[in-house]
Write a structure and sequence with these properties.
Elements (H helix, E strand, L loop, with lengths): L15 E2 L1 E3 L2 E3 L6 E5 L6 E6 L3 H18 L4 H17 L1 H12 L3 H26 L3 E4 L10 E9 L2 E5 L7 H12 L3 E4 L6 H14 L6 E3 L4 H9 L6 E5 L3 H8 L5 E4 L4 E5 L5 H13 L9 E7 H16 L18 H16 L3 E2 L5 E2 L2 E2 L2 E4 L16 E7 L2 H10 L2 E2 L1 E5 L3 H10 L4 E4 L12 E2 L1 E2 L2 E2 L1 E2 L1 H7 L1 E9 L9
Parallel strand pairs: 1-5, 8-9, 8-11, 9-10, 11-12, 13-14, 13-21, 14-19, 18-19, 21-22
Antiparallel strand pairs: 2-3, 4-5, 6-7, 7-27, 12-25, 15-18, 16-17, 20-24, 23-26
The structure holds NADP nicotinamide-adenine-dinucleotide phosphate.
NADP nicotinamide-adenine-dinucleotide phosphate (NAP) binds next to helix 7 and helix 8.
Keywords: Oxidoreductase
Family: Belongs to the aldehyde dehydrogenase family.
InterPro entries: Ald_DH/histidinol_DH, Ald_DH_C, Ald_DH_CS_CYS, Ald_DH_CS_GLU, Ald_DH_N, Aldehyde_DH_dom, ALDH-related_metabolic_enz
Length: about 500
């Protein structure tokens, strides 16, 4: 059960989950809590502390102090602690997964996978960090005209300071550790602000780092609504780097933040282009997996299908046959389609569906909704004047746009404000590579649905989909700065003989 056993200390006597500061679990002086609504029952399931600005100040202060010592800690020792945290996390996968089921309605098996994958990510990061941070460069001055070989430059990667990590609701554990582990191995301290839906899973994950024995103050976790505490955190002068994953909030943060490195992973409208020569069974399987896994609540979900008119009927038929087999219901029953995260998300999705209906889209299934649960829906004959052609539903609703040329598909993809991922299905590899070159997205998958992993692959969005690149190696590099030390030798007094 959440907050019991080794996790008992993370909850106070009133059942409110504590926040984590300076190596201790604390109740906020605000005396206020934030409810976490179970998306399935729509009742309050957990409560977390609403932290105050003073508490944030204290956290940042201790994070700065702890970081100074941590930067001097040998890499192997940092890695050892990370490996320990990974093992503790995996050992406690069941209670953490249970929180994911209750807070964000993640299907039970996927919830366990998220925790295990996060443990793997931490270990991979520890190993990668030891390798890439153990290396620096040695340069000499003679390439600069008029210089003797008297300047030696030594460069190494140094930490930035305090990294503020803000993950979204859909992977509150995995997208938190994808920021925490690179920051720590690189010698930074971490202040985590988890999403409200998903905060309790994240607090359990943080406790695993606590149990692993990290120094006090190095890792902290502030809870509270992003709309209330978010600006104070992101504009805090003690923060040296922000790693954020989420929606449009990230665009606002990047305009308000100071002169510090930003890593922004934002929304997407990932297009799936299907050509006449595609393997349509493979395409249909990927459209369904890509479009409907975790009820479409993934940044890299297929969010629009752009299919050549000549094969569209056949593709839609194959997709519909698979949609009929999707199970719909409670996350505890491990259903394919579970309630979307909040009532306002469900209302937003419904708005997109009604707009498409009014403008004449073909409904391949009847639209059905009970509370936050929306049945999977494929909308055919979607046109560019419909909102769903451009907006991110973040739900189990997938538009199909029929195209008459590859150029039309590429044009639609590139006209989007987003540029996260895309995919193309064709048996012609030359064509696939040309299309990949033409698509303005951070990644293009050939003959498979968009996906974030494996976690060490570079992952990035163009345009409104993000700033910078992640993946384990890129994140470690992003959370460091190059430091140069130049040794100036005396000018040699040799004679040319
Ligand atoms: P969101 O509403 O933007 O929230 C993301 C995080 O920001 C949450 O922790 C939220 O806390 C916090 N927040 C809210 N207001 C803030 C503020 N003023 N300052 C600082 N932080 C603030 O996104 P979401 O609904 O959780 O996630 C869905 C979105 O994330 C989708 O657009 C999806 O495409 C995107 N996403 C992108 C990637 C990627 O890698 N590109 C991966 C996953 C998801 P509260 O929960 O307390 O409001």
């Amino acid at each position: 059960m959440a907050g019991s056993g080794v996790f008992a200390e993370i909850k106070d006597g009133d059942g409110v989950f504590r926040y984590y500061s300076d190596g201790e679990w604390k109740a906020s002086a605000s005396g206020k809590s934030v409810p976490i609504i179970n998306p399935t029952t729509r009742n309050t399931h957990f409560k977390v502390q609403a932290c105050t600005q003073e508490e944030v100040n204290k956290i940042v202060e201790s994070a700065r102090a702890a970081q100074k010592l941590w930067a001097k800690t040998p890499l192997w020792k940092r890695a050892e602690l990370l490996h320990r945290a990974a093992a503790v996390l995996k050992e406690h996968k069941a209670p953490i997964a249970e929180c994911l089921v209750k807070e964000i309605a993640k299907p039970a098996k996927d919830a366990v996978t998220e925790v295990v994958r996060s443990g793997d990510l931490i270990s991979y990061c520890a190993e990668e960090g030891v390798r890439i941070l153990g290396e620096g460069k040695f340069l000499v001055s003679d390439s600069f005209p008029g210089n003797e070989r008297t300047k030696y430059c030594l460069t190494s990667k140094i930490p930035l300071g305090v990294v503020l990590a803000i993950p979204p609701f859909n992977y509150p554990v995995n997208l938190a550790v994808s920021k925490i582990a690179p920051a720590l191995i690189a010698g930074n301290s971490i202040v985590l602000k988890p999403p409200t839906q998903g905060a309790v899973a994240a607090l359990h994950m943080v406790h695993c780092f606590h149990l692993a024995g990290f120094p006090r103050g190095l890792i902290s976790c502030v809870t509270g609504k992003g709309s209330e505490i978010g600006d104070f955190l992101t504009m805090h002068p003690g923060v040296s780097c922000i790693s954020f994953t989420g929606g449009d909030t990230g665009i606002a943060i990047s305009k308000k933040a100071g002169m510090i490195p930003l890593q922004m992973e934002l929304g997407g409208k990932d297009a799936c282009i299907i050509l006449e020569d595609a393997d349509l069974d493979l395409g249909a399987a990927n459209v369904v997996k890509g479009g409907f896994s975790y009820s479409g609540q993934r940044c890299t979900a297929v969010k629009v299908v752009l299919v050549m008119e000549s094969v569209a009927d056949e593709l839609v038929e194959k997709v519909n046959a698979k949609v009929r087999k999707l199970t719909v219901g409670a996350p505890e029953d491990d259903c394919d389609i579970t309630p979307v995260v909040t009532e306002s998300s469900a209302n937003f999705i419904e708005g997109l569906v009604m707009d498409a209906k009014q403008k004449g889209a073909t409904f391949c299934q009847e639209y059905r909704r009970e509370g936050n649960l929306i049945w999977p829906l494929l909308l055919d004959h979607v046109r560019p004047d419909m909102r769903i052609a451009w907006e991110e539903p973040f739900g189990p609703v997938l538009p199909v746009i029929r195209i008459n040329s590859v150029e039309e598909g590429i044009h639609h993809c590139n006209a989007s404000n987003f540029g996260l991922q895309g995919c193309v299905f064709t048996r012609d590899i030359n064509k696939a590579i040309l299309i990949s070159d033409a698509m303005e997205t951070g990644t293009v998958q050939i003959n498979s649905a968009p996906a974030r992993g494996p976690d060490h692959f570079p992952f990035q969005g163009l345009k409104d989909s993000g700033i910078g690149s992640q993946g384990i190696t890129n994140s470690i590099n992003m959370m460091t700065k190059i430091k140069s030390t130049v040794i100036n030798l005396p000018t040699p007094s040799y004679t040319m003989g």
